[in-house]
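[Meeting: bench + compute handoff]

Bench side (C.D.) handed over the final construct sequence. Compute side (W.E.) agreed to return the predicted structure before the next meeting so the bench team could plan truncations. Sequence as handed over:
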Amino acid sequence: MLSRLANTNVAQADFVAKIVDFDGSFYIEQAGKTIQTSNIKDGDIVTLREDAQIVFHIDDDTKAKIVGPAKFVINKKAQ
């Protein structure tokens, strides 16, 4: 969920990135449990199997493509 803060240009989101495309197997672990979602939240662990790939949207100017095998965490930038 994306929401605007009153009287600012800052947006807050309950996710860090959104998966917009994928090919192959990947897993998202949140609070120790494997979940099915397209939203990557702060601190989620993403694991891609060999030759799997995901493309995710971080903000209006940033998309990223990751090719497996890979295991990574995306964290929100500290303010």
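W.E. noted at the follow-up: Residues 1-13 have pLDDT under 50 and may be disordered. C.D. will use this when planning the next construct.
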